């Protein structure tokens, strides 16, 4: 990425023009938070006399209150009076809405519109809670002028489900609803224009795309859980620790964790493209799946903490931070998770990686968001403290562009250069050595992991060759920590595991009665004829399994082994000669391949991609908010 002076100056100019527009809004939010805080401390109820008369008009006492608070804040009295009046009007609106809800059951929803709309972005909408999510979406689209199929509604940090009623989804009176407007490509716009009479089909197409993303993630997660795919031929996801080595995750947790991390990566891909409205639903889905994992598991990986930062960052970039009621909770949770994962003062991280320079990027983002949240809450002292901590980290993480160029000339990527320089405190020679060593270490780890996967696949094939199903082989190898001999002992000691079949026609070798030839083989080995016949019935004529089980159990079948395998066999196999079925299977396979490839496109090659940032956005936002904090008094007086 180029960082020459011309480009940086252009970006700074664009930000400066935007900052003039944003400064007034940010400072107004600060004053609103500060004045709300004063009103609570003084227990002032603006909707009652002497601040509101019997006709709900403003009372004369409000001007005296504005004078008192403007002196306290050392800012413009007219500005304070205007904001207090806005707070009073909203309080009256809320009271009227509460009374209306008690008498009629009609709830009020506070709708937050996208930033591009110049009108008041907070609007009230009345509705009954028995309508469906689809009906609410239609109502919002009609009221505020959106295309219904190109918006998503987020309430209580969850996407609104179209098929369920608001009541079923926990939507209550006075809830906040955020409208996400999905961007359309030129092709989408053209299609929408040509097919405007087929909006329902368009909506179904969007839903199919969402389902395809989910399906792709589920396929990859299932492949990782089964560990029977060929690592050379079939893409799959794996979970690694900070060093890049695979982590053993309990089967009950693995799929949820895979889906959580998959949705997170998808959301991060949209964040990089600054498509925040599309990123947020993916991030919220990731949060949902992470919540299905146990607390102990989340403390061993930093992904959950990073997700909390990404969610708050996304709300901030959408200029809808006030919709996230628990922003402080999420940031505190991220800080706690980092501490649990990295250790006090990062000592665990330093022990594992040898440094903590790259992870400082996460703490910079954390302190910045904490500063922004405190500023919007009227806590200027805390805001200044966090913003200054973020600025100090920014100085420590600054990278000289010429050093990046030096590493690029050595054949490293820009991403490797940034990560290496931050890990080595800006020393080019040390960074080059660090990157080279890391490349070699990762190559060795990947080689070892691939070999481990290959050996496990061979062991599964060996057990399958003995007549056991893939599922049974997997379970036995898992219990035996990958040892083939121990796995075979487990299977022989638990012959009922043989019935853990794969519902695969090729493994369904049932037969009504054993052949006399097979019975004679077992009798020749020294087993009783009746026992031999029973064993062959249990194992569907598999002489090898029957012989191994009888030998392991002293010539008889285990007493707890059911003798009616038909009760637990796979359903009859569909004839493979059915040409229509073959065509359908081929189509399904193509669709699955497409779904998987869409996911893989957004999975970064570098395992530390989430730690790589130019910090250009953070640099400008830190400067912007520090200027708000430091110049708030003088700026308000000028107004």
TrEMBL record:
<feature type="region of interest" description="Disordered">
    <location>
        <begin position="556"/>
        <end position="603"/>
    </location>
</feature>
<dbReference type="InterPro" id="IPR041207">
    <property type="entry name" value="NUB1_ubiquitin-like_dom"/>
</dbReference>
<dbReference type="GO" id="GO:0005730">
    <property type="term" value="C:nucleolus"/>
</dbReference>
<dbReference type="GO" id="GO:0006511">
    <property type="term" value="P:ubiquitin-dependent protein catabolic process"/>
</dbReference>
<dbReference type="GO" id="GO:0005829">
    <property type="term" value="C:cytosol"/>
</dbReference>
<dbReference type="InterPro" id="IPR009060">
    <property type="entry name" value="UBA-like_sf"/>
</dbReference>
<dbReference type="GO" id="GO:0010498">
    <property type="term" value="P:proteasomal protein catabolic process"/>
</dbReference>
<dbReference type="InterPro" id="IPR015940">
    <property type="entry name" value="UBA"/>
</dbReference>
<dbReference type="GO" id="GO:0005654">
    <property type="term" value="C:nucleoplasm"/>
</dbReference>
<feature type="compositionally biased region" description="Acidic residues">
    <location>
        <begin position="587"/>
        <end position="603"/>
    </location>
</feature>
<dbReference type="GO" id="GO:0034341">
    <property type="term" value="P:response to type II interferon"/>
</dbReference>
<dbReference type="Pfam" id="PF00627">
    <property type="entry name" value="UBA"/>
</dbReference>
<feature type="domain" description="UBA">
    <location>
        <begin position="448"/>
        <end position="494"/>
    </location>
</feature>
<protein>
    <recommendedName>
        <fullName>NEDD8 ultimate buster 1</fullName>
    </recommendedName>
</protein>
<feature type="domain" description="UBA">
    <location>
        <begin position="398"/>
        <end position="438"/>
    </location>
</feature>
<dbReference type="GO" id="GO:0016567">
    <property type="term" value="P:protein ubiquitination"/>
</dbReference>
<dbReference type="InterPro" id="IPR039749">
    <property type="entry name" value="NUB1"/>
</dbReference>
<dbReference type="Pfam" id="PF26285">
    <property type="entry name" value="SASH1_Homeodomain"/>
</dbReference>
<dbReference type="GO" id="GO:0032436">
    <property type="term" value="P:positive regulation of proteasomal ubiquitin-dependent protein catabolic process"/>
</dbReference>
<keyword id="KW-0175">Coiled coil</keyword>
<dbReference type="Pfam" id="PF18037">
    <property type="entry name" value="Ubiquitin_5"/>
</dbReference>
<dbReference type="InterPro" id="IPR011990">
    <property type="entry name" value="TPR-like_helical_dom_sf"/>
</dbReference>
<dbReference type="GO" id="GO:0097413">
    <property type="term" value="C:Lewy body"/>
</dbReference>
<keyword id="KW-0677">Repeat</keyword>
<keyword id="KW-0539">Nucleus</keyword>
<dbReference type="InterPro" id="IPR058666">
    <property type="entry name" value="SASH1/NUB1_homeodomain"/>
</dbReference>
<dbReference type="GO" id="GO:0034612">
    <property type="term" value="P:response to tumor necrosis factor"/>
</dbReference>
<feature type="compositionally biased region" description="Low complexity">
    <location>
        <begin position="563"/>
        <end position="586"/>
    </location>
</feature>
<dbReference type="InterPro" id="IPR029071">
    <property type="entry name" value="Ubiquitin-like_domsf"/>
</dbReference>
<feature type="domain" description="UBA">
    <location>
        <begin position="513"/>
        <end position="553"/>
    </location>
</feature>
């Amino acid at each position: 990425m180029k960082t020459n002076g011309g480009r940086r100056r252009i970006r700074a100019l664009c930000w400066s023009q935007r900052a003039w527009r944003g400064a007034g809004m940010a400072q107004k939010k600060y004053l609103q938070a500060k004045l709300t805080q004063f009103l609570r401390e003084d227990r002032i109820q603006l909707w009652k006399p002497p601040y509101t008369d019997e006709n709900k008009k403003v009372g004369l006492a409000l001007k005296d209150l504005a004078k008192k608070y403007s002196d306290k804040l050392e800012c413009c009295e007219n500005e304070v009076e205007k904001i207090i009046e806005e707070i009073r009007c909203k309080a009256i609106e809320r009271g009227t809405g509460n009374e209306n809800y008690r008498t009629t059951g009609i709830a009020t929803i506070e709708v937050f519109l996208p930033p591009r709309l110049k009108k008041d972005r907070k609007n009230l909408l009345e509705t009954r809670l028995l309508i469906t999510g689809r009906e609410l979406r239609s109502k919002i689209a009609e009221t505020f002028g959106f295309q219904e199929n190109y918006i998503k509604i987020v309430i209580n940090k969850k996407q609104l489900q179209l098929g369920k009623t608001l009541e079923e989804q926990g939507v209550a009176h006075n809830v906040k609803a955020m409208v996400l407007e999905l961007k359309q490509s030129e092709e989408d716009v053209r299609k929408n224009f040509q097919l405007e009479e087929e909006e329902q089909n368009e909506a179904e197409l969007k839903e199919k795309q969402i389902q395809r993303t989910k399906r792709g993630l589920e396929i990859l997660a299932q492949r990782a859980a089964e560990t029977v795919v060929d690592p050379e031929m079939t893409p799959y996801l794996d979970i690694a620790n900070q060093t890049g080595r695979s982590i053993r995750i309990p089967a009950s947790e693995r799929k949820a964790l895979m889906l959580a991390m998959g949705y997170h990566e998808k959301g991060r891909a949209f964040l990089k493209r600054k498509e925040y409205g599309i990123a947020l639903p993916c991030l919220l889905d990731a949060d949902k799946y992470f919540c299905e994992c146990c607390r102990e598991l989340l403390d061993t990986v930093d992904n959950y903490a990073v997700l909390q930062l990404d969610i708050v960052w996304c709300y901030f970039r959408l200029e809808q931070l006030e919709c996230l009621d628990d922003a402080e909770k999420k940031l505190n949770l991220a800080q706690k998770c980092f501490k649990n994962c990295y250790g006090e003062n990062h000592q665990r991280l330093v022990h594992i990686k040898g440094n903590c320079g790259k992870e400082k990027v996460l703490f910079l983002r954390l302190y910045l968001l904490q500063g922004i949240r405190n500023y919007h809450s009227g806590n200027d002292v805390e805001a200044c403290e966090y913003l200054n901590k973020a600025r100090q980290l920014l100085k420590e993480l600054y990278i000289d562009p010429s050093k990046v160029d030096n590493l690029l000339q050595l054949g490293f990527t820009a991403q490797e250069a940034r990560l290496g320089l931050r890990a080595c405190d800006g020393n080019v020679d040390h960074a080059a050595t660090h990157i080279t060593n890391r490349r070699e270490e990762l190559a060795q780890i990947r080689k070892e992991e691939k070999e481990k996967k290959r050996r496990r696949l061979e062991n599964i094939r060996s057990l399958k060759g003995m007549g056991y199903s893939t599922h049974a082989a997997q379970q036995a190898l898992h219990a035996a920590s990958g040892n083939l001999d121990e796995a075979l002992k487990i299977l022989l000691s638990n012959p009922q595991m043989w019935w853990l079949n794969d519902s695969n026609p090729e493994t369904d070798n049932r037969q009504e009665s054993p052949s006399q030839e097979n019975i004679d083989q077992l009798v020749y080995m020294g087993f009783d004829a009746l026992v031999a016949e029973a064993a062959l019935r249990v194992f569907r004529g598999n002489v090898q399994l029957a012989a191994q089980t009888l030998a392991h159990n002293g010539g008889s079948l285990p007493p707890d082994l059911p003798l009616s395998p038909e009760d637990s066999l796979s359903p009859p196999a569909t004839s493979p000669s059915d040409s229509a079925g073959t065509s359908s299977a081929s189509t399904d396979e193509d669709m699955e391949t497409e779904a998987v490839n869409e996911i893989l496109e957004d999975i970064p090659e570098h395992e530390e991609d989430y730690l790589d940032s130019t910090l250009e956005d953070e640099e400008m936002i830190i400067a912007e908010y520090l200027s708000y904090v430091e110049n708030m008094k003088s700026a308000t007086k000028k107004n």
